[in-house]
TrEMBL record:
UniProt-recorded name of the protein: DUF3597 family protein
Start and end residues of each stretch annotated as Disordered: 13-34
DUF3597 domain mapped to chain residues: 3-119
Pfam families in the record: DUF3597
InterPro entries: DUF3597 (IPR022016)
Length: 124
């Protein structure tokens, strides 16, 4: 599992996957109104979820990729941050402050693209 997937699962919650060989029962096609309502429910409030986690008051997850990873229980080592940077398109990650700012912002942008409601300050 990728580092970004671990981050996303920790914040969004894991979706149950069907067991091998077991097909879920068929579901009727939703009406357009039902589909719009379901999509609205699928949006995850990233800020609220992170603020609700134990330790959020002691960690600066809003600006620090290391604190963000610590808060959600993902190893924040240099190796994992470098792997995350590679997943998100940065091949020259060296762990500098500038790299970590980029990594935090890009992680938030990817959370937004994957159904997260992220504060605008993280999307610039």
């Amino acid at each position: 599992m990728s580092i970004f997937s671990k981050i996303k699962d920790a914040i969004f919650g894991k979706k149950d996957k069907p067991q091998d060989g077991v097909m879920p029962p068929p579901t009727p096609q939703p009406t357009p109104t039902q589909a719009a309502q379901a999509h609205a429910v699928d949006v995850v409030d990233v800020e609220n979820n992170l603020d609700s986690m134990p330790g959020a008051d002691r960690l600066n997850w809003r600006t620090s990729i290391v604190d963000l990873m610590k808060l959600i229980g993902v190893d924040s080592s240099y190796e994992n941050r470098k792997a995350l940077a590679h997943e998100l398109g940065r091949e020259d990650y060296s762990g500098t402050a500038e790299d970590n700012v980029w990594l935090h912002r890009t992680t938030m942008q990817h959370l937004s693209r994957n159904g997260g409601k992220v504060p605008a300050e993280f999307l610039d």
